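User: I would dearly like some help making sense of a protein record. This is the protein in question:
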Amino acid sequence: MIPDSFDVLVVGAGPAGLMAAIAAARAGRRVGLCEQMPRAGMKLLSTGGGRCNLTNTAEPESFMAAFGRHGRFMEPALARLGSQGLRDFMAALGVPTIAPDGFHVYPASESAADVQHALLQESKRCGVVLLLDTKVDALRTENHTISGLETNRGFIGAHRVVLACGGRSYPKLGATGSGYALATQAGHTIMDPLPVLVPLDTREEWPGQCAGISLENVEAWIDAPRFRQAKLDGGLVFTHHGVSGPPILNLSRDVVPLLHRNGHVPIRISLLPGRTPTAWLELFAGWQHDQGRRTVARLLGELLPARLAEALTATAGADPAVCAAEFARPAREKLAELLSGCPLTITGAGDFDEAMVTRGGVSLREVDPHTLQSVITRGLFFAGEILDLDGPCGGYNLQWAFSSGWLAGNSPSP
């Protein structure tokens, strides 16, 4: 028998919602956790490729800076539950953590399922009532104050509601953007939701010819005055439609909004960072002098995967079979440019089915950062991706989900 009222109702049983429910229940409140899917924490299982990159070891200042101009909004939540606090919390639930590279933090088992199980067990131990297959249709308010939720199970009363419904990324796992409609009912402004941390599609066709090839370390940047100094490094993967990999996914946080405004975005990628065009031209001159009978593609293939070397040589305007002694100067200069700062034109990006996170959401101007309560509707709180705040790959977004859930669940009653 489901109670007809709770002290707190949390909408969304992802990482933010589970943490909010646990925090509220530990504070002695009667908590109901509404989840529209048949299972709780499904999106959590997909994080970090199933390894669950919970957080990272960045200091708070650099952590907030990674979220851009809105990052300072996170300060109260991080003060209540920062990276070490989250690691201690998980350890107390029987999930010790490791940081194999000194930065990215995972459960020691490297299994997202262990994190999901621990959170569900703790919520059960605390007395949280998990309401699966429960779709929330509307907020009910009286005099700008929450009084409960209209659901497919009927009305459930509560004087405190935490919207932790996520954004629109991974819709198959329950993130359908339904929370935006609920927030709008309460008078909130929704900043245009966009899919970010996604692969990028290129106008150029040669990257597709290299699909499946990966490079361990490149530098990527947007080729525009405001962005040229913000170079991102990491592994690159060529796809059938363009490029992916951590620096590309992180670059998409700025590329996708620019795409929506301009229709295309120029980027550059240094395929072997550290060498200038001049250094490449000097290397080519050495090839001509010392190894003139060998093909340019074969020589470049000693530094890069063979198929990529052939594609780059052809893109530079030379026959991949041309020998170094006959490598014409215009082609040498073009290849030097391709290697040191390969220009690509981004004309598309992955959609919400591919997005790891949503950019946009409930406007931060309408939420108190010290409690995460709405400044419009008393008793309404927000946590996680539903808010207009997103970070790069590497544990940033999960830490924010947990920290914001903890703050929203622990905030004093309205």
Q: What stands out?
A: The longest helix spans residues 246-262. The mean pLDDT is 95. The radius of gyration is 25 Å.
